[in-house]
Amino acid sequence: MSLVAGVDLGGTAVNYTLTTADENFLIDGLCEHPARAREGPAICLQQIADGLRIAADRAGVPLEDIAMVGLDTPGPASSAGVLSERGSTNFVHTDWCGFDIRLGLEQKIGKPVIYLNDGNAGALWGHFALFGAGTSATSVSAIIGTGLGGGVIAEGNVIRGRKGFGGELGHVLIPYQSIAGAEGMKPRCNCGRIGDLESLCSLTAIENSLLPHFLPQYPDHELAKLDDNRKAAKLVRGLAEKGDPLGREIFRVQAHALGLFFDEMINIFDPDALIVGGGAIETTADFQGWFVREIRRGMPSQRAEQLDIPIHIMPDGDTAGARGAAIEALKTARRDGLL
Ligand SMILES: [Zn+2]
C-alpha cells in the first residue's frame, strides 16, 4: 500500500484527495460531491465509501492501495472524532448525536481512519504548503467562513489540546473597542461571548453585527432595500471587492479584528507565519493584498524582531481541509509502519 486519502466532510459538500507517500497529490483541484450529512450516518458514511472509490478511479489508482484515511469535519467533536451529544449545525440528524464518526468510517471502509476538526485540518495544510514536512516552524491559521476556524501548528504538529478544543481561535476575546468605527457595537457570538474573533470576523458577524451597525450609516445603499440580512451579508464580499464603501468598511473592521488577534498570537507563539484562509478571501489577488495590508494596519506596533512575520493567504483554499487531513493520515501511517 502506497497511498493515503483525505476526506473533508462539510455541511454541504464532501471533498476527497489522494496523496502518495512522498506527498505527491494525485487530484488537482476539487473532487467534490454534495454531502448527505443531513440524512444521518448510515447514508453519509456509505456516500463517503462510494466517493473514495470514485476518487481512486479518477486518480487512476486501485482503492486497495489506500493505507489510511484522514477525515475532517466541522465540530463540535472530541479530538477522537466523537460528535457532540447535543448535535450541531452540520450534523442535524439525531443519529449523529454522540456518534463516533472516525470509528464509523473505519468500520465502513475497513481501513484505519484518523480524525481532525476542519479548522485544524486547514491549518495543517497551510503549514505544510509553506514549510513542508519535518519542520520546526510554528504557524497560526485563521479561516474565515460562516464562523471562524483555524488552528495552531507547532513543529508540524496540530495543537489539539486536552479534549480537542485547541485552536478554537474564533472564541478568543479581542480588544475590539479600539477598532475605528466599531464604537457602540456589541458583537455577540453564538458561543455567548461578546467581542471574540468570530463575533467580528465571519459571515455570521457580518449578518448579526457588522451590517446592522454600518448599514444605517448608508441609508441609500442597495443593501438597505433588501429586507433580508442573511442575503445581504452574502453580498458584502462581492461589493467590497468592487470597492463599495460600505463593503470595504465592513471588511476593514474584520481585517483590523484579525490584526488584533494576530498580535495576541505573535506575543504568545512568535510564529514563523500567520495564514488567512476561508471563503471570505477566496477572491482576487488585489482584494487579498488589500485585506492583508489592512490586517497589518490593524495591529498594534510590533517589536523590531517581529515586524517581518509574514501573513500568507491559504494556498489551495478550497481543498485545504482534505489535503490537511491527508497530511495527518500520512504522518500517522508512517509512524504505524503502514507505508
Ligand atoms: Zn464565540
Explain what you see.
This protein has a 5-stranded mixed β-sheet with strand order 3-2-1-4-5. Strands 8-7-6-9-10 form a 5-stranded mixed β-sheet, with helices on both faces. It is an alpha/beta fold and 339 residues long. The protein folds into 2 domains: 3-125 and 318-335, Nucleotidyltransferase, domain 5, CATH 3.30.420.40; 138-271 and 279-313, Nucleotidyltransferase, domain 5, CATH 3.30.420.40. The mean pLDDT is 95. Strand 6 (138-144) and strand 7 form a beta hairpin. It is globular. It has 9 helices and 10 strands. The longest helix is centred in the C-terminal third of the chain and has 25 residues, at 245-269. Residues 170-171, 189, 191, 193, 196, 198-199 line the site of zinc ion (ZN).
What attributes does this structure have?
Nucleotidyltransferase, domain 5, 339 residues, five-stranded mixed beta sheet, globular, 2 domains, alpha/beta
Span of the ends, CA to CA: 6 Å
Helix content: 25-40%
Classify the beta-strand content into a percent band: 15-25%
Q: What's the number of domains?
A: 2
In DSSP terms (H or I, runs of 4 or more residues), the helix count works out at: 9
Radius of gyration: 20 Å
Under CATH, the homologous superfamily of the largest domain reads: ATPase, nucleotide binding domain
Count the E strands.
Answer: 10
The name of the CATH topology of the largest domain is Nucleotidyltransferase, domain 5
Ligand set: zinc ion
